[in-house]
From TrEMBL:
Region (Disordered): 1-21
Annotated Luciferase domain residues: 78-145
Record Pfam families: Luciferase
Lineage, highest ranks first: Bacteria, Pseudomonadati, Pseudomonadota, Alphaproteobacteria, Rhodobacterales
Protein name according to UniProt: Luciferase domain-containing protein
Amino acid sequence: MTFELPLRQGPRPDTTDCAPHEQVSQNSSAEIHAFFKEKAFALPFVERCRSGISVPGAEALVLPVAHACGPREAFMIGREFAHVHPSYDGSSHMMLPLAAVEELIAKGWGEPHPMASAGHIPANAVMAYAPRGRSEVDVMIKILTTSWDFARGKLANPAQVHIHG
């Protein structure tokens, strides 16, 4: 898998260190948030649903049964592989192959979910930061597309991920 991201400019945003895991600074404008969601929910086969695991108002990206062919660790709950938080936050949680997690964190586009860091959920659960402008929406769609490909079984996870429960 080739997954390269540009370096995100500026400092990382402030986030909470517990559940609910939210981004509290450098949030998207309403226009950028709507633009990102328009592109995110245009991915083929994606069903737009209320998240089964996130805060009220979060919208899940869910695959139909016939397309949810990825490994168990490609999904948060059921067939939900990612969700977008409400506009006051603008970040997204998603599942990525471990190599993509490393690149996301190294280039400043996201962070591990605190519950993953604590070992309560798979280590490949991440927060991807809210896009601050249209060019960042393009990067976020690249990240989200990687999660989508992982959930569709198009990407392998070269390292075993421990699943709790």
